[in-house]
Amino acid sequence: xxxxxxxxxxxxxxxxxxxxxxxxxxxxxxxxxxxxxxxxxxxxxxxxxxxxxxxxxxxxxxxxxxxxxxxxxxxxxxxxxxxxxxxxxxxxxxxxxxxxxxxxxxxxxxxxxxxxxxxxxxxxxxxxxxxxxxxxxxxxxxxxxxxxxxxxxxxxxxxxxxxxxxxxxxxxxxxxxxxxxxxxxxxxxxxxxxxxxxxxxxxxxxxxxxxxxxxxxxxxxxxxxxxxxxxxxxxxxxxxxxxxxxxxxxxxxxxxxxxxxxxxxxxxxxxxxxxxxxxxxxxxxxxxxxxxxxxxxxxxxxxxxxxxxxxxxxxxxxxxxxxxxxxxxxxxxxxxxxxxxxxxxxxxxxxxxxxxxxxxxxxxxxxxxxxxxxxxxxxxxxxxxxxxxxxxxxxxxxxxxxxxxxxxxxxxxxxxxxxxxxxxxxxxxxxxxxxxxxxxxxxxxxxxxxxxxxxxxxxxxxxxxxxxxxxxxxxxxxxxxxxxxxxxxxxxxxxxxxxxxxxxxxxxxxxxxxxxxxxxxxxxxxxxxxxxxxxxxxxxxxxxxxxxxxxxxxxxxxxxxxxxxxxxxxxxxxxxxxxxxxxxxxxxxxxxxxxxxxxxxxxxxxxxxxxxxxxxxxxxxxxxxxxxxxxxxxxxxxxxxxxxxxxxxxxxxxxxxxxxxxxxxxxxxxxxxxxxxxxxxxxxxxxxxxxxxxxxxxx
Length: 699
Ligand code: AMP
Ligand code: ZN
Prior knowledge:
It is built from 24 helices and 24 strands. The strands form seven sheets. A five-stranded mixed sheet has the order 2-11-10-3-9. A five-stranded antiparallel sheet has the order 14-13-12-16-17. Strand 16 and strand 17 form a beta hairpin. The longest helix has 19 residues, at 4-22. The protein binds adenosine monophosphate and zinc ion. Residues 361, 438, 440-441, 443, 456, 458, 461, 463 line the site of zinc ion.
């Protein structure tokens, strides 16, 4: 799309505009340059995956454009980078007619099938050799894009193949789709392009994590995620899901009255190249032109073996006759073109029977229904149980015990139930009844409004206690090796370990005669436990298992304090000021630190030698208290003496035993006695009130 010279040009323009942006501001006269610069960087970022500008600088330029357009509304163009931003909040999806029907593909599963396809192609064309273009079969949701006079005017889903839903607003959120492209210069007035909308594996996993953090069921696979996103009513929400598009087919071209179509369009490979040149993300690097079917087979097999290494899901390869003229000659059935075939990779779906349900209680008390399955291999992994997340999920999918179910494992994603195969029901399947009481401690389950999960709210519920300990020692938390899940369960039953502080008072002597514990393993366990005492604060925060506090939030929290118990003093509002902490998270943190038992447990941990300090912060602290010495005398108006002393220590200060030249601050209350008199004689000591003391701490 941009050659070296053009790249340099836009780079220069970028620098100049940034300079102006920071100085006198960007003038309305430069609106075209500004748009050009933004388009160039969108392309570098989204299509090439190789940004040349920081997000921050991009935003600065983008905002300048928004400002100029606001001041000069008549200059707004339909393909301005600002026009991706959805202005209307909700919309329906009108049904639209496709210019050319969107067909399916015929399938093939092995080399034999591909050789058959090759034979048929030769028969139909009357040639002795046919050239193919082979490319990945992207596993997403197909889309049709229409450009008229260089502008993207319509995007539609496949629908039934003849008609689809118009989803232009949502598709405009996808940065790999150019809002305009220079087709006219190629003699093309109108063009319909087909492609696949997808969400890459990382973004998919992140999105699922996000859903689960909110107690919602994750989506089964990236394909459903992409399709669902296209149909979201709120385009700003759609923008957050970070969809991508690969375009792989030109289905219609309307030539301008003068001029002829570019020669590149005479082959499929050529049209992929042309689309790439015009700024689209086509599989121009992924494709391969093959002159024999053996070559095709080899390429397909090669791709299957690297399937898991790709950033997005593909479920096979597509083999297309390369010459468009030959494609036309071969034609199509009502179902699929005769000039193309899909080579399907080994299925990652399987059917099996749902034989029962187990209700598991997690560390937050959430009760999760887990489907027990007749063990089956899916994409090389044996699966015998799958989480069904919550009651709604079961009701929505109408899952019943005894059902045959379709399950899927998309890449490295945890297997999911796609649906029950209702046609196979015999009438003996049983409804899944959600328990009203905790399967472990038998206390009544509760469900909060707007929540999907039932919870056991008995803090002492053994299931929760055990899960909390398991989480506490886990690899990303305190990382206490040797104290794995199985051991914790065993120790809990044997009453050797009943709560988190119990880890640090563990009676190793009791282990000595137990089966499976040699001297060496006991030693290792001791070392691991002792070692965990100095884990950084963010790990400890994560280990506490506060609801909604994942590793990232734990880091944010750790960076905000010098001592873990500082959170006792944090209001919800203060918590909300932290990065990425929303009302739900803030509420949960506040709740946790308002609970006496939690505070007591944390204090116990500190007494047992765990570090509750944010070491990093201390080192960089320029604070007024850090490294200074304090002494208290008299009755302070609000603070208890011990609390005040603790505050000093928490901030890295030292509390002295008596007045001496080493003392920096004497904090005085009512009835201050001899200490005050003594301090007055040493003029380096500053004598302050409680209020002044508190100010010092704040600063
Ligand atoms: P199927 O839905 O299995 O019949 O396969 C046809 C679908 O494969 C098309 O509707 C496209 O959405 C999708 N597809 C993915 N990648 C490609 C590709 N490179 N060429 C053609 N179709 C593709
Ligand atoms: Zn319980």
